[in-house]
Amino acid sequence: MAHLTNTAPTAELQALDAAHHLHPFTHAAGLKDKGARIITRADGVWLQDSEGHRILDAMAGLWCVNVGYGRRELVEAAAAQMAELPFYNTFFQTSHVPAIRLAERLAGLAPEHLNHVFFAGSGSEANDTNIRLVRTYWEMKGAPQKKAIISRWNAYHGSSVGSGSLGGMKGMHAQGGMPIPDIHHIDQPDWWSEGGDLTPEEFGRERARQLEEKILELGEDNVAAFIAEPVQGAGGVIVPPDSYWPEVNRILDKYDILLIADEVICGFGRTGNWFGSETMGIRPDIMTIAKGLSSGYQPIGGSIVSDEIAEVIGGDEFNHGYTYSGHPVACAVALENLRILDEEGIVTRVREETAPYLKKKFESLADHPLVGEAKIVGMMGSIALTPDKASRAKFEDGGALGYLTRERCFANDLVMRHVGDRMIVSPPLVISTDEIDLLIERARKSLDEAMDEAE
Ligand code: PLP
């Protein structure tokens, strides 16, 4: 059997990587100068790199390894499914057991009125599906002019042309012809960076009302849907003020506009409930899922759709689908992952034990001289670095200290991500209290070192 286990020296692998491998969201120059970090194995919350370091992964890979690394049950589920039926499609009136069982399971987990799943290979693909779903829904309801979709600046909904357009990452829009037509953005509810003199609650309402202003500007009969992450993840873990979502709900109801809750990060226990919509009090018409659905062990995503939308769309053939929609191996692994999350009580433990513990420890970082706000929901949190807490000031060379801190974290065998000058954690949901202590200890040490180095 061909083995991909590393036996080559790190430098050789790095040189090959820089020579032939184009990476997502990575500067090629960095790969040439310093080389990529090469991760070779993982277990629980621990990564191992090609130099033998054991690194605490406080990002669960890319916010996805919810059950932690090294679960044999998932390996066995994949192997058994590969042996039995490695592939078949779900097009043209065919189906197979793993897709049927997973759709049924998801309908049981999702809010009561969401009972239908359209599978995709990723969160990006699922959000592309959502663009077509909501527009087709309104066309079939006799309102073809309802095409506009409203999203938020600094949201992340994926990297395909459709989902990247839904996202509000200006750096992404600057490359390659995005956004596509009829996608509009309003400001995000980031009180720390943009709240000015308003209280968080006033600011939350003000940002929600931008949605109403945008709806009126576009014409209330022209808006198909609003898409949002219950808690923004890749934008820097932006926890909205409590006043935000109730006001958004009120506005969407008033104008009969669909809500797409992008649960790609928030879903499957990350916020302490099965879905972030529950934690934030949201009633979506569609939920985008991926990542924690399979704990990242297989690429899979999907859209869980309301009974109303499924019924309307079902009035005709939906001319849409991916070769890997409902891939049997990915579905089998996702089912086993959901079984583990459920039967081991992982979501409940997060809500009742480990997330409250992490919150207390994480918020204690706010006493560090560099740290302004420290915000966390369940197992996703961020700290804002600032030169002056009282005025919530920003660093002139935005992102440099975040980058430096991330590098210090890595040197201290801890993966934290930086988004500008925000430092993020989103660990595997199985992290223990001892590992949380270690995470916080290493984060504090890294902050101290970054502060010294920056002086
Ligand atoms: N939506 C959200 C909220 C995400 O965070 C991501 C990825 O980070 C996506 C969608 C895109 O998912 P994928 O990378 O699986 O295409």
From TrEMBL:
The UniProt record lists the keyword Acyltransferase: no
Protein's UniProt keywords contain Repeat: no
Record keywords, A-Z: Aminotransferase, Pyridoxal phosphate, Transferase
Gene Ontology molecular function: any one: transaminase activity
Co-factor(s): pyridoxal 5'-phosphate
Lineage top rank: taxon: Bacteria
A UniProt-annotated Pfam family: Aminotran_3
InterPro entries: Aminotrans_3, Aminotrans_3_PPA_site, PyrdxlP-dep_Trfase, PyrdxlP-dep_Trfase_major, PyrdxlP-dep_Trfase_small
PROSITE patterns tied to this protein: AA_TRANSFER_CLASS_3 (PS00600)
Family: Belongs to the class-III pyridoxal-phosphate-dependent aminotransferase family.
Protein name: Aminotransferase
